[in-house]
Write a structure and sequence with these properties.
- The chain has one domain: Alpha-Beta Complex (Peptide Deformylase), CATH 3.90.45.
- It has about 190 residues and is an alpha+beta fold.
- It is about 30% helix and about 25% strand.
- It contains six helices and five strands; from the N terminus they run ααβββββαααα.
- The structure holds zinc ion.
Length: about 190
């Protein structure tokens, strides 16, 4: 399921080459500048018990961190999968495997975003207002959802993670300036 020729980082490389067993309970949220956050995640080819267990672990970690979304690269898994739990209006826990996005309302709107992998940084991000997401659920069924509110934003944020894109890439110049030190501190902590 993990593309064995795809070299992400030492951790993933070893995991894929040795076909190591993934222990979902040992997965943790990784922080910027972990290199897996910059990679392009690979499609999930079949929905195995392992995928289901990783998805459940991601849901648990998302709730423990009081987040509304979490993408597989954030737990160091280079898979095209994310989970969400949007509270208002309550949307329940959802799993999106191999998601695709289409913009239904391309006009950009601004909203503040944070990221569980970039603690302490909340920045205004411009994104298209309306999105249609098509993905596969854990039962292997394709589903499509549309939104022009907060869920649309969460889908776009999590989808970006699958392509190695972070909010610090999309923040506006004022936020870039205001958070320069915080980002530098994260980078220093990551390389320590
Ligand atoms: Zn994030």
């Amino acid at each position: 399921m993990v593309n064995r020729t795809h070299l992400w980082c030492d951790l993933c490389d070893r995991r894929s080459i040795a076909n190591m067993t993934i222990v979902p309970s040992e997965l943790r949220i990784v922080s910027y500048p972990h290199p897996i956050l910059r990679g392009k995640a690979m499609p999930i080819e079949s929905i195995t018990d392992e995928v289901r267990a990783v998805a459940q672990r991601m849901i648990d970690l998302m709730h423990m961190a009081e987040g509304v979304g979490l993408a597989a690269p954030q737990v160091a898994m280079p898979w095209r999968m994310f989970v969400t739990s949007v509270p208002d209006p309550p949307d329940g826990d959802r799993v999106y495997i191999n998601p695709r996005l289409e913009f239904t309302i391309p006009e950009l709107v601004v909203h503040e975003e944070g990221c569980l992998s970039i603690p302490g940084i909340n920045v205004d991000i411009r994104r298209p207002a309306g999105v249609r997401v098509t993905a596969t659920d854990l039962e292997g069924n394709e589903f499509t959802l549309e939104d022009d509110d907060f869920r649309a934003r969460v889908w776009q944020h999590e989808f970006d993670h699958l392509n190695g894109i972070l909010i610090i890439d999309k923040m506006m110049p004022m936020d870039r300036l205001a958070n320069r030190r915080a980002i530098r501190d994260l980078e220093a902590a990551g390389s320590a």
